[in-house]
Amino acid sequence: MKIVLAGEQVRAPLPSDAPGARRSYTVIYDGDCKVCGRIAKALTKWDRDGELEIIPSQAQSVRERFPWIPSRAYAESLQVVRLSDGRTWQGGASLEQLLTVLPKGWIASWLFMIPFARPLAEKFYRWFARNRFRMGCSDHCAVGPPDPDYRNSDAGKK
Predict the structure, then answer these.
(1) pTM of the model as a whole
(2) Where are the domains of the chain?
(3) Residue 26: which of 87, 73, 71 has the closest Cα?
(4) Which of 9, 16, 54, 111 is the one with CA 20 to 30 A from 1?
């Protein structure tokens, strides 16, 4: 079930027996990307409280569990879904949300309070995503322009 409130994308909560239901967030990354795999390993290490379910976008259950996220979005950016209501963040906004969840994330989260930090973080994220194949990944990671049909309603909002 999809619910739209003031431009935010919100979904009905997952049933308590759904995969990852004991966790607060699901982080979905491109499992074919070596850089993304390293980021997923770092998130696993930093998530001492077990708040994150971290899964590759190629996992069979992903499309079924998160049908509102288009397939191309997984290759373009990290997806973070709050399981209690289905709210979804991508790109720079996903990093900001992860900082609010991870222990010691507060050390860097204050940076997003600086004027223009959110748009700059998003631009940097998109640049990084387009160029990640130069940073240890394969040609698979060469990403084209973002999908105009799927925009993060939370980018630049708190």
Answers:
(1) 0.69
(2) 2-141
(3) 87
(4) 54
